[in-house]
Amino acid sequence: MGMRYPKLEVNFKVKREMKIGELAERSGVPASTIRYYEKEGLLPKAQRGANGYRDYQDGALERLDLIQLGQNLGFSLDAIRTVAGLHGDALKDALLGKLEARLEEIDRLSAILAAQRSSVLDAKERVQAAVASGECRVQAAWELSQTPGPSSPQSTSTTHPARTAKSRS
Q1: What's the farthest any 2 CA atoms get from each other in the chain?
Q2: What mean pLDDT comes out for the span 103-124?
Q3: What's the pTM value of the predicted model, to 2 decimals?
Q4: What is the tens place of the pLDDT at every residue in 60-90?
Q5: Reduced 3-state DSSP string for the chain
Q6: Contact status, residue 44 vs residue 63, Cβ threshold 8 Å
Q7: Considering only CA atoms, which of 25, 16, 13, 14 is closest in space to residue 59?
Q8: Alpha-carbon gap, residue 95 to 3, rounded angstroms
Q9: What integer best gives the mean pLDDT of the chain?
């Protein structure tokens, strides 16, 4: 006959509520930001205990994760609020739509930045070529402005004719 072990009963309570400090610690989001999100409707209103403290459910931690993910992906709080309030297929469809729109925006911004980078590289090459040939008036003016002395634009009180004419009228 085998050995009989006493029946072991394990009772544990899954923590379902947490105070704002614990939520802040677990999520990495400051308590002041959690209160702001609650005020702005991004986070459901917390229940209040008899002591007046906010009691947050575990779902608040998931919602904070969603908010942080959305912000890391460059979404506005309004866009996050819109998606966070949905459920089921509506949530999936809206989320996919927002992600697709964000990808298109990133592609558009990337094209703008690539064009600007190309323009800056062209300008840099033109300035370098002009400096090498001694033709760069911008560099000559810059060097002149950095040299202290009576001929320096910093030490003279000459005014621009257009500005003088405007100030007299």
Answers
A1: 116
A2: 94
A3: 0.59
A4: 998 999 899 999 999 999 999 988 888 889 9
A5: CCCCCCCCCCCCCCCCEECHHHHHHHHCCCHHHHHHHHHCCCCCCCEECCCCCEEEEHHHHHHHHHHHHHHHCCCCHHHHHHHHCCCHHHHHHHHHHHHHHHHHHHHHHHHHHHHHHHHHHHHHHHHHHHHHHCCCHHHHHHHHHHCCCCCCCCCCCCCCHHHHHHHHC
A6: yes
A7: 16
A8: 57
A9: 80
